[in-house]
Amino acid sequence: MIENALEIAHLAQRLVEDEAEHLDGRQYRDWLELFSEDAVYWVPLREGQANPSELNVLLDDRSRMENRIDRLEGGHAHSQIPPSRTSRSVTNFRTAQESDEIVVVSSRFILFEYRRGVQRLYGGRYTHHVRLNGDRLLIKSKRVDLVNSEARLGNVTFLL
Amino acid sequence: MLSQDQTTARIGHANQAADMVRVGAVHRNIYLDPDLYRQEMKDIFEQTWVYIGHESEIANAGDFKTTTIGTSPIILCRDEDGKVHVLMNRCRHRGATVCQDDAGNTNAFRCEYHAWVYGIDGGLRGVPYPSRYGADFDKSKLGLMPAARVGSYRGFVFASLAQDGQELTDYLGKACQYLDLFVDASPEGAIEAKHGAHKYYYEANWKFQLENSLDGYHPYFVHRSFFDLQDKRTDSKSTIFSDKSTAVAMELGNGHAVLDQRNIMNQTNTYFHRVKMAPGGPELIQKLENERGEAEARRILNSIGGNGFNLAIFPNLVIIGVQIRVIRPVSVGMTHVDVFPTTCVGVPDPINDMRLRTHEAFFGPAGFGAPDDLEIFERAQAGIQAEPVEWLLLNRGLEKETYEDGLAVGQITDETPQRAMYKEWFRLMVGSPGCG
């Protein structure tokens, strides 16, 4: 059992860091294992957007996250052939207990992406809702607020 | 147009537009030559009707959006009397843009260089320190320059920078019936494009997007990753875009064209399957089947993603699924594309929300479809750098298509639409009835 809030905060932050490592390692199946069955992966289109029913950059439920991975691994997703190489730093962690079950982890990220001879830079805020599930923490939702979400985005078919 | 021998004889030493288009083929230079690009801006985008925006984007007095006609920056806005204006976003004094936002609401456009202020009808309201101007300074002649002609059809606003030319409805011609179908998907005959846009760029010529929007040959190859998934997840097999399909590709006149799949949309459950794969989709299907029965639920869900056709209105408007797609040339090798998903007035929110979900799932910048198209456009732009290979082939279906009222009708995988586009391109660029 996880005993106290400090330990939960520490483990939740660690979970977000593990997630980033899986993404940069393109270990998609390991990445998916960090999420709960009712997980949501959301990239809003507008700054401060409150409602995912509005137009988004992407909105995935668990099933669509699996589809996304199948697509990336299926060998025919031309926009990811060759795949983007990424390296992200996640910093400025803030952790808040939302309920007995849910911890909200907010962080900032800097993401370098390299593909076909061009390096691009993305950045923004991650907001993870992490659920305490017995002695395990799972990501219930991941929200990615790109600083340039409203810009003319290029190919963001890799995982943010 | 020239015979093949005449055309061949002129290759290599001439770059004139007339040498660039043959029956069933186009020369690589139309995608690469900056001079031809500049001529396209002048002879196509400054001559013909160009799509500007949808009236729902500027529903209220003072609403505006900024966009371009060719490479000219413009403002689309609505004045206090409800009149729609298309104005150059360019101060008449020293040239700075007077409107900096993509969209919004205002009661004036103000140039921040020397504070010249224009009304939302474009009229010049005032300039600071007017005493130093001469007697011939006439504010009434210094409003924001309007487009020569502005027209609207079912909420679609077009403008032309040419004083003379066809009326808008004559220009749209047979395309009107498809715009009607798109708008009449709403029981109230009104759609809304006010949900924002997915905005792309790609480093290739603008015509690749126009051609590809009506290309029924590419989906199973460029979008194989999507169709593999859909077939697997829905236990079905998509067949619309094969050479056995009964769907058609048709020329509509004036460079417009359509891929019409309506005859098989319901039997292939094209959009039903997309709903099934969307977040919240299975729940919506269950709810509708409980309320309306399976057949009616399926009919409704098949219409959520669109009307079963891809429509191109030359040179810059495409309708696919629920979206209004606007093609914006930036330079010979750079293109911007704005994609506006629409919803239907008079339709319950969960249905309209699902229009946005199925749209963003395929066409968003992280979607399972559109990014693969953009990748291919850039590969095409790279490939046609090959100097010794001059021609791109658009001859698929050429010998098999039929004609109705002088307009070509082909099978959905034929290059009938692309030939229609280049017929109009030739007419505008060369000034004589075209080729194709």
Describe the structure.
The complex is a heterodimer of chains A (160) and B (436). Chain A is of the alpha+beta class and 160 residues long. Chain A has a single domain (5-146), classed as Nuclear Transport Factor 2, Chain: A, CATH 3.10.450.50. Chain A has helices at 5-24, 28-33, 62-73, and strands spanning 35-44, 56-61, 85-97, 102-115, 118-133, 136-146. Chain A has a six-stranded mixed sheet. The model of chain A has no long low-confidence stretch (mean pLDDT 95). With 436 residues, chain B is α+β, with helices and mostly antiparallel strands. Chain B is globular. In chain B, helix 10 (270-277) crosses helix 11, helix 10 packs across helix 12 and helix 11 crosses helix 12 (294-304). In chain B, the strands form six sheets. A nine-stranded antiparallel sheet of chain B has the order 14-20-19-18-17-16-15-24-23, sandwiched between helices. A four-stranded antiparallel sheet of chain B has the order 6-5-4-7, with no helix packed on it. Chain B has a three-stranded antiparallel sheet with strand order 1-2-22. Chain B has helices spanning 4-10, 29-32, 34-45, 168-172, 176-183, 206-213, 219-222, 224-234, 262-268, 270-277, 281-292, 294-304, 349-363, 370-383, 416-430; strands at residues 21-22, 25-27, 50-54, 63-69, 72-78, 84-88, 103-105, 109-110, 117-118, 124-126, 149-153, 156-160, 191-192, 198-202, 248-253, 256-260, 309-313, 317-320, 323-331, 334-341, 343-344, 391-393, 402-404, 407-411. Chain A binds chain B through residues 40, 43, 45-46, 53-61, 63-64, 67-68, 70-71, 74, 76-79, 151-157, 160, and chain B through 195-196, 198-201, 222, 224-226, 228-229, 232-233, 277-280, 336, 341, 349, 353, 356-357, 360-361, 364-368, 371-372, 374-376.
